[in-house]
UniProtKB/TrEMBL annotation:
Keyword vocabulary terms for this entry: Glycosyltransferase, Transferase
Family matches, as SUPFAM superfamilies: PRTase-like
Protein's name according to its UniProt entry: Phosphoribosyltransferase
Residue ranges occupied by any PELOTA RNA-binding domain in the UniProt entry: 725-804
All copies of domain Cysteine protease StiP N-terminal, residue ranges: 447-698
Keyword match Methyltransferase: no
Record has Disulfide bond as a keyword: no
TRSP domain segment(s): 260-395
Orotate phosphoribosyltransferase-like domain sequence ranges: 25-212
Taxonomic superkingdom: Bacteria
Species name: Streptomyces zaomyceticus
Amino acid sequence: MVWTGTWVAERLGVELIGDEELPALLGLALRRNPKRAHLLVSGVLGKHVPQRPSVVHGSGLDLGRRVRALLGDEEAARSVVLGYAETATALGHAVADGLGLAPYLHSTRRPVDGVARAGGFEESHSHATSHLLLPEDPKLLAGDGPLVLVDDEFSTGNTVLNTVRALHERYPRDRYVVVALVDMRSAADLGRLDAFAAEMGARVDLISGAAGTVRLPEGVLEKGRALVAAHEAPYEPAAAPAHGPTAVRVALDWPEGLPDGGRHGFTPDHRERLETALPALADRVGQALDGARRPLVLGFEELMYAPLRLGTALEDAGHDVRYSTTTRSPVLAVDDPGYAIRTRLVFPAHDDPADGPGERYAYNVAGAGFDAVVLVVDSTADTPALHAPDGLIAQLAAHIPRVVLAVVPSYTPTAAPYSPYDATPQVTEAPERSSMLPEPLRGPAFSSYAPEEVGWLLQDLSDVELEAPTEEREEAIQSGGAHYAESLPVEYQPSGRYQELFHAALETSAARIALAVGTVTETVLAERPGRRPVLVSLARAGTPVGVLMRRWAQARHGLDLPHYAVSIVRGRGIDANALRWIAAHHEPADVVFVDGWTGKGAITRELADAVKEFEATEGITGFDPEIAVLADPGSCVRTYGTREDFLIPSACLNSTVSGLISRTVLRADLVGPDDYHGGKFYRELAGADVSNDFLDAVAARFDEVGAAVDTDVKELLAADRTPTWEGWAAVERISEECGIHDVNLVKPGVGETTRVLLRRVPWKILARRGADADLAHVRLLAEQRGVPVELVDELPYSCVGLIHPQYTRGATGVDGKAVVSQ
């Protein structure tokens, strides 16, 4: 028998390594995905590949029995099983069946009016919308017994571990069990579960049906994209029968009040009622099959368990039946025995989904030799779209002689829920929006900073090729109206001479920076008496400053300040999902936004507008859009360490002085509406990393500047710190005097000038006469790029970088897009 992963493996060089039974359990297919081109296709899940219902149900039953043996009957009776929509809803149900004593709940992508949300989470790079938790009994997740989480595949484990972490914060418990059909963790991920358990202070066990990993060759993403592009033809739906799309409707006589699945909870009592009713339900369906010899029971997205159990009952009655379900997931179909997805039916969504209309799919149904199909949907999905000429029933009728429609009533929770823990009905308010966004990324897995120094509210795009040469980026932005945040500049690799300048500058300026760090930190603390600020740095320039402020507060006051890094993009605003996560874990009024320095104040204005929009959209208030900065030469903010424009060594380099993290990325095909903005971790640059050298050198000078900090803060708090926006006025003047007539091509200050030389196409540098001490690295970079440096008087900054008007295609305006000079 040909392994259904052969086609992909031969063309991409992918290897499946692990237990002997893996090839029988998993095939391979391709999909469009920026992080993983291949798709592991289970042969026993009942989602993409039709399988005997007894095999699908039995796989979950076996895992559930293993969980019961692990926990023992007493703990099993106190447990709750949680499955993931859409793929693992039936698997989780079957695990609960095997466990036998526990209620079951699965996440859902369908909001239900009148049902409070007990939580939810976002799945990175999912093809679908957010997951919600909607138990009929709000106390279902609030017990202290073991929580059993069930998914089809445990790969990196991010989704499951993030869910556990978020639930643990609200409903702490001592034990978790993670269950998966296959454990496909890489060697790098194997230790994460133990580390996670230690971090949580809870026991976390893993049970799987088989284990292995996928070995991917270099360049597999690019090869996968090319392969998909070469084989993905436009889909043309088959013509419906001449008599039009029709289906024989069977009256199931579903037991009154019995849930159609685990969306709102499914108790052991519900399970007993269903088992009792199944033979009669299957008999009605069997009669409607009218002698069909090889029927398929086809479920509908999350509605997997009820169709599966109808299938097992038909199988028990002697039918040669198979089972699978429709899905949201778009996958390439290739008619080859060595490929897991042979055929694909495409049809419009027919349940009025919350995230809007879209395509849905049924795989390996057409051409599989079925002479009848029993389509099982809930009443919410029995809509005109289902019966339309291009709808699912028409697509099935074009390939299969007999279509039987069985509609299960959509369960509506009652006002007085049954609770396995407490018979007293209670109503609990739950957050309107999900609080279960992924946890912050931390070092050493993401960034070279210590994990306690900063949590990055970003998604890891380290495996995505985003860099392009400077001129190429400028051309792309100009020709297509592309946004600067859609790509990354090639990381500058400093010469030996430049590195020497960096270390020399650090040695001479460390005390000056320490003074500014202490001043801005003490100002922040003085402005919030009795409160513990939450530092939120604007990645990436603000992040080293945030780490230093955190270190000062710890060294001087014994305060352990939370610190997170978030993305803000000119013209696109701040990452709203990151703010949502912060608001779910901290008081917004405690948040202090932190940046490295101000130039002309564009980000200051951007943040104010973004916070205003966030409050209006999300209904979450309390964030103060004021930014605390190390240096404010543009006089744009009230809270600062100094208003002098001097060399901050963290501006001299890119990722190698910022925890090896890239500038942030915001691109539609990589960052969905429920994703954090992206960033890359340049692990390969570890040999050149000076991030912690910079931090340690500055922190070592804290003690010697303590008295000066106290004096400066006292004077600052008594002074008028109202922003004058002097820098903006200077930029407008320089723009006119130099004949540029575009403020967006003028980058003021040492930090911004350095960025121009490292990332952009510079025209010339204006240097203030007498400021040479802070400009050695600027002069070296200018020399390396052949850029003239002109000395000028009466400049409010030490220097100003001018982007070449010839390359206005690379100059970006306040909306982040290319602008044209006059």
